[in-house]
Design goal:
By secondary structure, this protein is mainly beta. Helices cover 0% and strands 52% of the residues.
Length: 244
């Protein structure tokens, strides 16, 4: 199993991740632009998109979290003020949302989307680096290779129909053993750097501005030596805001 799929590097370094051009369902508004790095049996995908133009949708067909990495994207949900996303800004689009998307020049963004036949939350929800953080569960002592970290989260979007949660999280430094990841997780790092270890001893180093996806069950470790903050999406059979 591939441990992690790197979706974007802020420094422009080449990616080892393979992408394929494909739509996410028959009504995917980004069908001609989407590049998928991972697609799971639980109807979740992650990847990147390059887009220019305008789209109008009476009902957005799935849940999608977008984080812009280059350019500017405007999202307008019915009855709400326009949300303008520049680099390293993000938002969650609920399934069923009436939405207009506008990019006057080329914009690039990473995404994590999930099918949802019976959505429980509609609308457009921004992700914020200056989140309303609240203390969240730390890690059990038996998986740590050092002090217990102090973790905080701000979960701003939950759709029970897809067990899909999104928000912002941060933590003090910590070192964790390689273990099976407990959920599908998309991450866009906002601050700090992380060394992700694989079972073969190799290490993937990522920092602020980078994005990746870790499938549920993938064996992976974590080591950070400074505060780390990230936008996240998690999905599991039992939805949880606890971070890995």
């Amino acid at each position: 199993m591939t441990v992690a799929f790197v979706l974007h590097r802020a420094d422009g370094a080449p990616l080892l991740t393979s992408f394929r051009r494909a739509a996410f369902g028959k009504n995917d508004p980004f069908a001609r632009h989407r590049e998928i790095a991972w697609e799971g049996p639980d109807s979740m995908i992650a990847g990147r998109t390059s887009f220019i133009g305008e789209l109008d949708m009476a009902s957005f067909p799935h849940i999608e979290t977008i984080v812009v990495v280059e350019g500017e994207l405007t999202l307008e949900a019915a009855g709400e003020a326009p949300l303008v996303l520049g680099p390293h800004a993000g938002a969650v689009i609920g399934a069923g949302t009436a939405l207009r998307v506008l990019a006057e020049s080329r914009v690039r963004f990473v995404f994590c989307a999930a099918a949802c036949d019976k959505p429980t939350k509609r609308g457009l929800v921004p992700l914020r680096a200056d989140a309303n953080f609240k203390p969240s569960a730390s890690l059990p002592a038996e998986v740590l290779l050092g002090p217990v970290p102090q973790c905080r989260s701000d979960n701003v979007f939950t759709d029970d129909g897809a067990a899909y949660l999104a928000g912002t999280w941060d933590s003090t430094p910590y070192h964790r053993i390689v273990r099976a990841h407990r959920m599908n997780e998309f991450m866009h790092l906002l601050a700090g750097s992380v060394r992700f270890a694989a079972p073969d001893g190799s290490v993937l180093s990522l920092g602020a501005g980078d994005a990746l996806f870790v499938p549920q069950g993938a064996p992976i470790g974590w080591e950070s030596s400074e505060r780390v903050a990230k936008f996240y999406v998690v999905q599991s059979v039992q939805a949880s805001i606890e971070q890995n």
